[in-house]
């Protein structure tokens, strides 16, 4: 046994972190403030159902932990090989993500979380050195980092339990904070280290909507199940991701002022009929109005901080360390990648957690800043650029050069979503260089063409 580890949060990243460390021989306890989601009633589950796109970085981490586990956990995914753009008239146009059938994979967040919790139960202590258990309805309320001068002094955690007046106090060698964007672990860490921290609410609100399966017995999907559907309208947009039962989870993103101005049945109906007529037919007008009025309106928060750790005692990962807007579909994938990077560093530094945590903060920060900026920029790409001819030309150029030059020319989306070996900050740098080359080439081409035309005119017209 390599030490006792507390993971705070049994969300997607906390569950994966717990599994990874248990496979490495640690004695892991995961604490979660909520009840076990597998016991929540169906209505509650439906309300919180959000689809996620899993891509290569996330899949690589699951495979690193256990390839068979990865297969079981991702058994219910649907591949999405590109975007399907819906215009105002309801016409659809496909934009493939990659040249070689590359896909990102749609999965229900609730299903994924439950699959991971199930894997925790399947963990076989007889076959592995480590162990893992989960404590639900345990809310972290205090952290005492112990004696500063003694690196081996344990961290004492205090948990408040539902329906109990007695707090629980427990000691651990190491604490992993995976408690989401509003992380309390981060707050305690911030009292201990000189942490740079910034948070920013983006002026976009999101509302979940639902496209039911089709009535057609020969095809349960009313639109293509192998695309991420987008209705881009610049300031706002609608997207839809497929579910295996033929339904789609659709999400409206728009500025808060606009979203909150749509209150009455007439306002909602007329806005959606004007902007997304084909989506109204798919969702059903009455269901759409009901969902828009009653479903929670979510805010989008971006968080950056550094360092991510205190000595070898505590580290934060996932949304706790880098909450990002969802437009690149990387929040969870990046959180899973945190787990891989951290696990590899622990192995590299022979499980001296202080060295591994130090290296994590040093190497990971630039990647996290890079993906945060990419995620923010991708709203503009999804909601507006996808319809511009210049964007389509750049995509076509990228595709052509990628086919011609292979790995020497990689489109940005390919580097971020389909490659798991190019750190985010390198992907950003490579793209900046490629963009510069395309601009220079474009400029030179236009200049040469202009010179040729002028020369031709001069000779032809004998000016
Ligand atoms: P969370 O999922 O927030 O989990 C944190 C857990 O900690 C929770 O269970 C919480 O109850 C628990 N907790 C909090 N405080 C305490 C405490 N004091 N004590 C004990 N437990 C505590 N990412 C992708 O990769 N692909 C996508 O397609 C994608 N789409 C998205 C779409 C939307 C609309 C949104 C909002 C996000 C999307 N994301 C996507 C991002 C993704 O959902 C998050 O990055 C991911 O869920 C973060 O996981 P986490 O485990 O770090 O945090």
TrEMBL record:
Its EC number is 1.14.13.9. It comes from Komagataella phaffii (strain GS115 / ATCC 20864). Pathway: Cofactor biosynthesis; NAD(+) biosynthesis; quinolinate from L-kynurenine: step 1/3. GO terms for cellular component: mitochondrial outer membrane; peroxisome. It comes from the Eukaryota. The gene is BNA4. This is Kynurenine 3-monooxygenase. It is found in: Mitochondrion outer membrane. Catalyzes the hydroxylation of L-kynurenine (L-Kyn) to form 3-hydroxy-L-kynurenine (L-3OHKyn). Required for synthesis of quinolinic acid. One of its GO terms (biological process) is quinolinate biosynthetic process. Keywords: FAD, Flavoprotein, Membrane, Mitochondrion, Mitochondrion outer membrane, Monooxygenase, NADP, Oxidoreductase, Pyridine nucleotide biosynthesis, Transmembrane, Transmembrane helix. InterPro entries: FAD-bd, FAD/NAD-bd_sf, Kynurenine_monooxygenase. The chain crosses the membrane at residues 437-457. One of its GO terms (molecular function) is NAD(P)H oxidase H2O2-forming activity. Its cofactor is FAD.
């Amino acid at each position: 046994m390599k030490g006792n580890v507390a993971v705070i949060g049994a969300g997607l990243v906390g569950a994966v972190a717990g599994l990874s460390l248990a496979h490495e021989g640690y004695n892991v306890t995961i604490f979660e403030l909520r009840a076990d989601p597998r016991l929540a009633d169906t209505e509650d589950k439906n309300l919180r159902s959000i689809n996620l796109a899993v891509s290569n970085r996330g899949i690589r981490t699951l495979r690193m932990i256990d390839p068979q586990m990865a297969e079981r956990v991702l058994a219910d995914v649907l591949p999405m090989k590109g975007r399907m753009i819906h215009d105002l008239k309801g016409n659809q146009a496909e934009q493939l993500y990659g040249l070689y059938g590359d896909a990102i994979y749609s999965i229900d967040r609730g299903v994924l979380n439950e699959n991971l919790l199930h894997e925790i139960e399947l963990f076989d202590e007889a076959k592995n050195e480590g162990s893992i258990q989960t404590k639900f309805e345990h809310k972290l309320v205090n952290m005492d980092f112990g004696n500063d001068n003694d690196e081996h002094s344990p961290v004492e955690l205090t948990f408040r339990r539902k329906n109990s007046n007695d707090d629980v106090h427990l000691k651990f060698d190491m604490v992993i904070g995976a408690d989401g964007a509003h992380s309390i672990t981060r707050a305690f860490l911030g009292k201990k280290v000189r942490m740079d921290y910034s948070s920013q609410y983006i002026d976009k609100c999101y509302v979940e909507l639902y496209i039911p399966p089709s009535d057609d017995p020969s095809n349960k999907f009313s639109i293509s199940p192998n695309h991420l559907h987008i209705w881009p309208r610049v300031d706002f947009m609608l997207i839809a991701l497929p579910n295996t039962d033929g339904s789609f989870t659709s999400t409206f993103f728009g500025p808060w002022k606009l979203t909150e101005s749509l209150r009455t049945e007439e306002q909602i109906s007329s806005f959606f009929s004007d902007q997304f007529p084909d989506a109204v037919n798919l969702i059903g007008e009455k269901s759409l109005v009901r969902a828009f009025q009653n479903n929670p309106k979510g805010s989008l928060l971006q968080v950056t901080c550094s360092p991510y750790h205190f000595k070898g005692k505590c580290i934060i990962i996932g949304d706790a360390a880098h909450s990002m807007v969802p437009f690149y579909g990387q929040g969870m994938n990046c959180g899973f990648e945190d787990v891989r990077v951290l696990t590899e560093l622990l192995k590299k530094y022979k499980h001296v957690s202080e060295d591994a945590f130090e290296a994590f903060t040093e190497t990971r920060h630039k990647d996290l800043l890079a993906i945060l900026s990419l995620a923010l920029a991708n709203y503009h790409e999804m909601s507006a650029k996808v319809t511009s001819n210049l964007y389509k030309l750049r995509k076509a150029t990228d595709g052509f050069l990628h086919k011609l030059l292979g790995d020497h020319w990689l489109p940005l989306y390919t580097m971020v979503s389909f490659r798991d070996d190019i750190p985010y900050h390198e992907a950003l740098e490579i793209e900046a260089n490629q963009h510069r080359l395309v601009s220079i080439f474009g400029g030179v081409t236009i200049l040469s063409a202009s010179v040729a035309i002028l020369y031709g005119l001069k000779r032809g017209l004998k000016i």
